[in-house]
Every structure is written in structure tokens, then in C-alpha cells.
Amino acid sequence: SIEAYLMRVEIEFRQRHLIDTETTFNLLLAKFSHKPVVWRAYARFIAGHKSLEEKVCFWRDACEEHPESLAPRLEILRTLHSDGGTNQEVLAASKTLLELDPENREGILRTAQYLKMEGATLEAFKYFQLGATLYPADVKFISGLISMHMSADQIDEARALATEFDLRTISSSSEEFISKASLFHQAECNDKAVSVLTSASRKFPDNFNCQSLLADIQIKSGRYHQALKSVIASRVIDPEHAQTAKHYARVHAFIAFVSKSGNCDLHGASQVFLEAAKHIPIVTAPPSLSHLALVTSTLGAGGAERQVANTIRGLKQSGADSLKL
Fold first, then answer.
1. Which residue stretches of the chain have pLDDT < 50?
2. CA–CA separation, 76 and 90 (whole Å)
3. What spatial distance separates the first Cα and last Cα of the chain, rounded to whole Å?
4. pLDDT tens column, 219-236
5. Most buried of the four, 28, 50, 126, 274, by CB within 10 Å?
6. How confident is the model over 122-166, as pLDDT tens digits?
7. In the chain, where does DSSP find H-type helix?
């Protein structure tokens, strides 16, 4: 059976018997070339040990050997998209796929995206519109349309799309809430984006991604006091998350934005940082997370040194100890 062959392939591949794996795949393709699952399994097999040229060559040979099968054409498209094919190569692959399957979701999406990158905005818009019509629940097509409207300064049209998508779809998972909020943020409806994520945070109080995106949007839309609370909340959810350092940096960004002079008051920044830290419980955090790292760039001669010195001075005056440079 196909399941037995696939299990055999998995075992051989894990044991790094690549020649045996290739032989088994040849048997699989000879018997089950009409099964997309076989092509996907082979795509995973060759992904790690063949070059882009070798993979594309294989899939093109497979297209010739199995002209009735969409799977190898889809794999050419995926390979070129993920492994660094040129825009023209990806477009050619996606359009070839659409010639055989005009309603293929991935073919439509890649065609729209790469036409947009090539500057063919009107044609790209048509493909995004086609995808949104055929797959109305797919946020990628709505996002593409909103992006194009925003690029053309058609803000009302973009906001109407985000609102319409929100009204006709029901959010039951954190990912769906995040998708809706992202659309509103993309259309510069930040009040709605914050509202959606606030609801999501109540429904999924332990979801780090909801709190993290909420902090992002609040900072970018000028809601700095709210953003500080969201940063702290996300830190409480996962104190060892990889974005912890970025969250701490956001506290300083908050101070920089609200500074009346337009420049960051480093002494004031250190005070707010320390005040925020009081509300962040220490939950088995590694020692490195208890320190502050300041990264500067694009400063004039001597600027970086002065900024570091002033920051350390401000932290010291605010009561911090164990400061090291």
C-alpha cells in the first residue's frame, strides 16, 4: 500500500540511507504518481540535499513524465518561491500551473504577489481579486488587496475591505483574531485593530502573540501608556521568550516618542524602565535577562560613547546597581 511505502521511505531517510530512499521513491512514483502526497513526500526528501537547479530539473522531468499531474508543477512553484528563484521564474511556474488549474489557490496567490513585485499592479490586483472571490475566507488575498489600495492612497477602499472581512467571518482562534487585527492595522484602522486584539487577549489571556502584536500596534499608533501595559503583560506570559529584549527596548522607545523635545530623555527612560521592571515577576529567567543591553547605530563620532555613559549614569541615579560596561 502507499502507506507502507511512505513508512519505509521515512525509516530509510531517518537512517540516512539516501540511495535506498531514492529507490523506494522511484517505486512509489511508478505506482502512485497520481497521488499528491507522494510528490510532497519527495519534495521533503530532496529539500535538504539537492541544489535549486537539481530540484527544479527533477520537477520539470516529472512534469514531462506525468503531464496529467498537477503536483510536480505545484512543487516547481514552491521550490522556486522558497529557494530563491527569480521573480520571472516564479511567475512562469505559477502561470503554467494556472493553465492546468485556473482556480489553484497557491498559483493565484503567487502570481498576484510576484506581479506586484514586478510592478504590474493592475494585473496583480486582478489576481488578488480573483483569489478573494474564489477563497473569501483566505486572509492573504484580502491583505494583498488592502496593500494595493493603500499603495494607491485608496484608504477608504482598504478600510472597507478590512471591515467587510471582519463582519462576514467569525473568529474562534487566536490566529484568526490576529489576522483580522493585522488587516485593520494594514488599513490604518488602529482603533479597530486594538479593539480586536484586546478582545483576543481577554479570550486567550495566556497567548503571547496576541499581547505582542497588541504592543506593536499600540506603539506604532501612539498609544504609549497602553503599549507599556501590553509589553509588561507579554513579559509576564513568557518571561524567557526570544522577544524579551525587544520588549524591553520598546519601553525605551515609549519614552523616546513621548519626549517633548523629540529626543530620548535617558534619565527619564531609566526611571520608567525600572518602574516597569517592578511589575514584571522574575520567573526562572536566565541571568542575562536581568541586564539591560543598549544598542546604538548611525551616531556621529563620540555619540555612541556619550549615549552609553549617560544611560549608565541615569540608571545609577535611579537606584540600579551592579552596572557593568
1. 260-270, 272, 274, 276-290, 296-302
2. 8
3. 65
4. 778 777 787 788 778 878
5. 28
6. 999 999 999 999 999 999 999 999 999 999 999 999 999 999 999
7. 2-14, 18-32, 36-47, 52-65, 71-83, 87-100, 105-117, 121-134, 139-151, 155-168, 174-186, 190-203, 208-220, 224-237, 244-258, 266-278, 303-317
